Amino acid sequence: MQLYAATSQQFILDTVENRIAEKLKASFFQHYRFNPSPGEIRSWQNSLSKMCNVLQYASLSDHGVILEYQLPMSSKRLDCMVTGVDAGRRLNAVIVELKQWDAVGPSEVEDCVITAVGGAPREVLHPSRQVGNYQEYLEDCYPVFHSGEVALSSCSYLHNFQYHAGSPLFDARHRDLLSRYPLFTGDQTQALADFMSGSVGGGRGQEVMKTVLRSKYKASKKLLEHTSRIIKSQKVYVLLDEQQVVFNSVLHQAAKSFHEKNKVVVLIKGGPGTGKSVIAMNLVAELCAQNYNAQHATGSRAFTENIKKVVGNRAGVQFKYFNSYPTAGRDEIDVLVLDEAHRLRPSSHNRFTPRSARSELSQTEELIHAAKVSVFFIDDLQVVRPGEVGSSELIRAAASKAGAALREYELEAQFRCNGSDGFINWVDNTLGIRRTANTLWDTNDPFEFRIAESVQELERSIRERQQEGFSARLAAGFCWPWSYPDGQGRLPNDVTVGGWSMPWNARPDSRKLAKGIPKSHYWASDPNGIDQVGCVYTAQGFEFDYVGVIFGLDLRYDPKGGTWVGDKTQSHDAVVKKSKELFVPLVKNTYRVLLTRGMKGCYVYFMDEATRNFFRSRVE
After folding, report:
1. Which of 25, 352, 518, 574 could form a disulfide with 522 if both were Cys (CB 3.0 to 4.6 A apart)?
2. pTM for the full model?
């Protein structure tokens, strides 16, 4: 999808006669069904007039111009692409990232600088890294580029910026980026024109533009091989026993479906710690190695962003979200590996989703539609929000509706909680989630469960475990407000128990954070996460050697009635509080998730005395 595609002559005419922004605005509304922001319209007016000057300086009159070109299976859009042939008559396209920046500061983050965004300083990608990522993405995802049919190059143009060798943009650490993806400033317009002429100066741009726009998404063999190699280099992804059985079974289904053209849905059920995510990652690695276009998707930003951090930018394009597939064609993906499927939602769109990006299908149906083989990993007891509807029954119904063959497997062996099936069964039984035979906790079990006498003792124990070299985190029920950082990026101590306090992990949309505070989606993997309390939305999907849980007052055990009761006045989760009759089950699931994050031990501080006594009564 693109908002504008025309010859360079037409683009120059539209810009000179001051109608280019209006054309983009009309196309934007037609696609998204709402108007672009005034700021985006102004950026089109300002930046495209400068780009028009470049084309005129370079005498590019027989070329194609594509504006606001959307990357496949992404919401990102390229600012500008110019097509043509070079002096050797080879087909070429040049991506130009347009920036209105006029001031830039240094950043300690790799490949980043600081500039004003929305009136406040913010760390952003260096323009060369940004446009380089776009080029690599297209080369990996479109046959027209990865086959070499059309060569691709890229650059950035900061038309309001004056060149200064001492600028952070030209720091020595960015030298390699700048050599591969050049950056031009406002006083280097002629240099940019020469760069464009060298790539596409031979004209015939309309022909090349049509070739580019006709190209369909298909992951390159090099990308699949790279993704496989990166995942397999992570030695934590080792399969044992029934995990290997499920892994081999899915590989068999993938090959069979691919050759017989049959749609297959694989449903894999398992509780916390049964290795669902380990199998999912191994599947992606092996399927990519066998040249299947395999993608991984979840409904968790933190989980997916941590995977992308591990595998890197290039392999990261194979890792998506559940809502990435509304416009995907039928069977566009060979195998879609869907982890944390209990986080599925009724629909992939919201009120801001453009009409052209919506489908009539539910999110589950979209995913099955997009893939020849859909592999759902699910724990039916991990739904913690009313908007999450993922369940085994929902997936079965969607598979039947799509006419897909259904294969089901169940993982039972416990690889978390020190291999103790008993601990998770005991938690489920004690919280009244499901009846199990584990009514009492055996203190001789190798998994360490401890009830702390104070929240100070809880924190001290968790910090001691980390100092000993273990991974450890504090987590809590959503019983306190979750504030934004202050003007210096410091987090308020929202979580308070008596005279003790600590901040929540950073909110996902926090812009500026003080040094040493990890972003929300890296709280679980950054060692500095020990200094914040994690909520269920940040902790779900991760595991630590030891977890410390503050069991709040939103869920309490009533010894008189012998039942669990919820207290909405003690909850600060606005969405869960609205769920009426689902409030207690959802909060139970929340504490189940938090209590089962540990592989070696779980320490708990109960704020309510009756609840503490009840848990104690269930310990031998």
Report:
1. 518
2. 0.69
Give which of 106, 110, 133 is closest to 121, Cα–Cα. Answer: 106
Residue 333's nearest CA partner among 374, 370, 368 is 370
Q: Which residues pair with 354 in a beta bridge?
A: none
Exposed, middle or buried by CB within 10 Å (0-12, 13-18, 19+), for 506?
Answer: buried
d(CA 496, CA 269): 37
Q: What is the DSSP string of 260-292?
A: HT--EEEEEEE-TTSSHHHHHHHHHHHHHHTT-
CB 598 within 8 A of CB 543: yes
| Pairing of β 151-158 and β 183-185 | parallel
Q: Which two tokens stand for residue 150?
A: 């059309």
Residues 365/376, Cβ–Cβ less than 8 Å = no
Beta bridge partners of residue 66, listed in sequence order: 5, 81
d(Cα 82, Cα 243) in Å, to the nearest integer? 49
Check: CB of residue 196 under 8 Å from CB of residue 54. Answer: yes
Amino acid identity, position 223: L
Mean pLDDT by 10 residues, the chain (620 residues): 92 94 90 83 93 94 93 82 91 95 88 84 89 90 88 95 93 94 95 93 90 82 74 60 78 80 90 82 88 91 83 84 90 93 89 71 95 94 88 96 92 59 89 91 90 97 95 96 93 96 94 89 92 93 92 96 95 90 94 93 97 94
Give the separation between CA 311 and CA 301, rounded to whole angstroms: 15
Quote the CA–CA distance of 66 and 325 in Å, as a whole number.
24
Q: 255-271 in b/e burial notation, b at 16+ Cβ within 10 A? A: eebbeeeebbbbbbbbb
Q: How far is CA 537 from CA 27, 300, 534, 593, in A?
A: 37, 8, 8, 10
CA atoms within 13 A on the CB side of 71: 20
User: What are the structure tokens assigned to 479, written together?
Assistant: 């019983």
Q: Which sign, positive or negative, has the C-alpha torsion 138, 139, 143, 144?
A: positive
Q: Domains in the chain, please, with CATH?
A: 2-214 (no CATH), 221-411 (3.40.50.300), 417-617 (3.40.50)
Q: Which region, left, alpha or beta, applies to residue 276 given φ > 0 means left and ψ of -120 to 50 means alpha?
A: alpha
CA-based max dimension of the chain: 87
Residues 234 and 309: beta-carbon distance below 8 Å: no
What's the CA gap between 557 and 610, in Å, rounded?
Answer: 6
Category of 89 on φ-ψ map: left (φ > 0), alpha (ψ -120 to 50) or beta: left
Amino acid of residue 496 = T
Strands 333-338 and 77-85: unpaired
Angle, helix 127-141 to helix 301-315, in steps of 10 degrees: 80
C-alpha to C-alpha distance for 320 and 294, rounded to whole angstroms: 11
How far from each other are the two terminal CA atoms of the chain, in whole angstroms? Answer: 63
